[in-house]
Amino acid sequence: IEDEYGNVLHASGGYAAPAAYAAPVAYAAPVAKAVVAAPAVAYAAPVAKAVVAEPVAYPKYEFNYGVHDAHTGDIKQQSEARDGDVVKGSYSLVEPDGSTRTVEYQADDHNGFNAVVHRTPGTHPVAVAPVAVAHAPVAVAHAPIAYH
Fold first, then answer.
1. Does the keyword section mention Zinc-finger?
2. Full-model pTM
3. Which residues contact 66 (CB under 8 A, 6 or more apart)?
4. How far is it between the farthest Cα atoms of the chain?
5. Which of 7, 34, 59, 85 is least crowded, fewest Cβ atoms below 10 Å from its Cβ?
6. pLDDT 10s digits, 32-77
7. What's the number of domains the chain is made of?
8. Coil, helix or strand at residue 92
9. What CATH number has the domain bearing residue 73?
């Protein structure tokens, strides 16, 4: 039985597979062109280049800074100087108990790093604000007693 388009219908009521499939007209391998040329050889005299060493800057600096925050009690300072391979400096800070810790240091190639620590008692301890702790009230609810 054929439908209105000329396809053969089977008992299942579906359409039949096409009778033929189209195949490519021709297969071809890729075309490779062979190019033959003489190698390009060039001879040149060696290039002489003078290498100039970059000048190394002599390391020399000095700095210092300080912080004095009376609200938080953060009080400190530092200073340092470098001349070639020798570094000298110091820093100090106020400890929570009001004392001052001072560190003096020096570093060089011959002796390495050396530090001396001094502690100076404070004239008065730094007041630290007390921590306020508030506890929430405990909620207690008793369940009714159940009788059987």
1. no
2. 0.47
3. 76, 77, 78
4. 117
5. 34
6. 666 666 666 666 667 777 778 887 889 999 999 999 998 888 999 9
7. 1
8. strand
9. 3.10.450
